[in-house]
């Protein structure tokens, strides 16, 4: 799955992980249209066999595509997407691990608000906080 | 002595026990989950079998770590990281030719790793509800396969707190947890093969 070419800047990157390739792609399209090209962005959806689900391999590749020295915020939909994203983070090199977070936020709204915050140069912490303000306590 | 032929038998029997019950696992998961557990486990374990020659040639700890990594990459869903973490932790904790006591202790450590990965506890209608009594039986005595089978049955009246089944709340009551069932299948296959082999 190819994300749009990522701009080489210091903004936090956004990764969208859905069980559905269509939801992942559609969410990424909304982010691009509403936020623009200022944020490294990648998405993935579907299990290793091409059905609905998530794949650690695809998440690892998406993190690489959206990688920024400022870090990467991951937005997920249902349970397996979160578990697989956490697994992917643990499989990253040590120097990256502290700079990748899974946001506890709804995937579409969270991705748009996180990308909006990231496009202004906010820190990874600030991006995550802003996305998570959308979540019920 | 756990030689290459016995490692091969253990890996192959364990993988086949779940692959052969893929339809049953899928039916259980359709009742309370998203209906992909059988298919996901089958895909992951078929990838393990495809690598059987090289896995059986490795010492047990290395074979388990490699199996864990394959499950993480190939299963998909939450069961990939959960079973992958289980196998990788067992690989880290077990010696090349483990005793029953080694198995009990290593499984105890692996259960803690699976709890952390799934953010879940015993009693929440998951694979942990089978693995924990099995670890106890390995350490304190008892037939692991019989304990696992009874423990999987005991998930039927439980209410799911974690995973997709938790969306159902009380409606998850009355169905066996698919992860508990796949764990029981693995325990039965491994303990039967190990008894013959060890």
UniProtKB/TrEMBL annotation, chain A:
PTS EIIA type-4 domain: residues covered: 11-137
Top-level class of the enzyme under EC nomenclature: transferase
Known EC number: 2.7.1.121
Catalytic activity: dihydroxyacetone + phosphoenolpyruvate = dihydroxyacetone phosphate + pyruvate
PROSITE patterns for this protein: PTS_EIIA_TYPE_4
InterPro entries in the record: DhaM, DhaM_N, PTS_EIIA_man-typ, PTS_EIIA_man-typ_sf
Function, as annotated: Component of the dihydroxyacetone kinase complex, which is responsible for the phosphoenolpyruvate (PEP)-dependent phosphorylation of dihydroxyacetone. DhaM serves as the phosphoryl donor. Is phosphorylated by phosphoenolpyruvate in an EI- and HPr-dependent reaction, and a phosphorelay system on histidine residues finally leads to phosphoryl transfer to DhaL and dihydroxyacetone.
Binding partners and assembly: Homodimer. The dihydroxyacetone kinase complex is composed of a homodimer of DhaM, a homodimer of DhaK and the subunit DhaL.
UniProt protein name: phosphoenolpyruvate--glycerone phosphotransferase
From TrEMBL, chain B:
GO MF entries: transferase activity
Keywords (A to Z) from UniProt: Kinase, Transferase
InterPro entries given in the database record: DhaK_L_YcgS, DhaL_dom, DhaL_dom_sf, Dihydroxyacetone_Kinase
UniProt xrefs under Pfam families: Dak2
The DhaL domain, residue ranges: 5-192
EC annotation from Swiss-Prot or TrEMBL: 2.7.1.-
Superkingdom to which the source organism belongs: Bacteria
Protein name per UniProt: Dihydroxyacetone kinase-like protein
Organism, scientific name: Kaistia dalseonensis
């Amino acid at each position: 799955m190819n994300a749009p070419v990522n701009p080489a800047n210091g903004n936090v990157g956004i990764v969208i992980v859905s069980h559905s390739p269509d939801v992942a792609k559609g969410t990424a399209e909304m982010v691009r249209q509403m936020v623009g090209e200022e944020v490294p962005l990648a998405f993935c959806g579907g299990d290793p066999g091409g059905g609905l689900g998530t794949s650690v391999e695809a998440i690892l590749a998406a993190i690489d595509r959206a990688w920024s020295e400022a870090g990467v915020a991951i937005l997920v939909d249902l349970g397996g997407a979160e578990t697989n994203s956490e697994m992917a983070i643990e499989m990253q090199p040590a120097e990256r691990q502290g700079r990748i977070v899974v946001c506890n936020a709804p995937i579409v709204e969270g991705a748009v608000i996180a990308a909006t915050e990231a496009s202004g140069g906010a820190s990874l912490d600030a991006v995550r906080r802003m996305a998570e303000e959308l979540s019920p306590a | 002595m756990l030689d290459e032929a016995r490692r091969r038998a253990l890996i192959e029997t364990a993988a086949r026990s779940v692959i052969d019950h893929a339809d049953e696992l899928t039916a259980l998961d359709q009742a309370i989950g998203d209906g992909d557990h059988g298919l996901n486990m089958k895909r992951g374990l078929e990838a393990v079998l495809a690598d059987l020659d090289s896995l059986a040639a490795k010492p047990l700890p290395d074979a388990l770590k490699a199996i864990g990594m394959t499950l993480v990459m190939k299963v998909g869903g939450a069961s990939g990281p959960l079973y992958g973490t289980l196998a990788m932790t067992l690989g880290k904790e077990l010696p090349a030719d483990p005793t029953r006591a080694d198995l009990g202790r290593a499984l105890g450590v692996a259960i803690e790793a699976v709890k952390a990965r799934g953010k879940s506890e015993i009693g929440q209608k998951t694979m942990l509800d089978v693995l924990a009594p099995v670890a106890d039986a390995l350490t304190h005595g008892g037939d692991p396969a019989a304990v696992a089978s009874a423990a999987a049955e005991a998930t039927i009246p439980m209410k799911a707190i974690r995973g997709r089944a938790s969306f159902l709340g009380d409606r998850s009551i009355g169905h066996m947890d698919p992860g508990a069932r796949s764990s029981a299948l693995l325990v039965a296959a491994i303990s039967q093969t190990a008894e013959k082999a060890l």
